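Batch job 17 of 40 flagged for manual review because the log was empty.
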Amino acid sequence: MYKIDKQINDKWKPLFSGLRKQTWFPRLLHDVAARRKVSTVFPDENQVFRAFHRLSPDQVKVVILGQDPYHGAGQAHGLAFSVPHGVKIPPSLRNIFKELENDLGISPPSHGCLEAWEMQGVLLLNAVLTVEEGKPGSHQRLGWEHFTQAVILYLCNLKQPMVFFLWGNHARQWKEIIPANNNILILEAPHPSPFSAHTGFLGCRHFSKANEFLASWNMPTIDWCLKD
């Protein structure tokens, strides 16, 4: 089915070993594989757990929680809100770049690949890791939400300073399971979608607030600039 061990960093293996013992996790993978046989599912099989490949849990400083992958061909590559180089920048990501410019004066890049953020400790995690072409939300309630909960709790138990970006109502629901500890900063705002960005996302200044928090813990801040 999925060659998970080849996709994830070794330091995530304790989490995934525990998940394999849960009845819902193998069933979830089976259900997604079954849907691939009858429809086009994004991202590719070898990119479903892409967010856990380069970044180890002890390196995570910021978690940006998305909803589900982009549902257009060539867009999703396993990192929330990100698209590969050469792919048109989606509207939500354009608004993220607009807020980045408003907040820190960083000019929008010509591409939408967010790997440079990941390399600095930003976990780009979708709450649902797969989707059918042209059908946003089509893999909700398959069991991915249990997976997301397990990841969030695993990270919080590490006790390291961490920032959670919760954009939109779907992301905000996860606030309930995040401990209210002084080493965790939760930043909430409307989703950067064109339908809601102007109701509070634009102007939220989450990028600078995250760096101020990390600096207060004497941790390296995130260079949010994406070079062309």
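Reviewer: the log was empty due to a logging misconfiguration, but the result itself is present. The mean pLDDT is 95. Unflagging and moving on to job 18.
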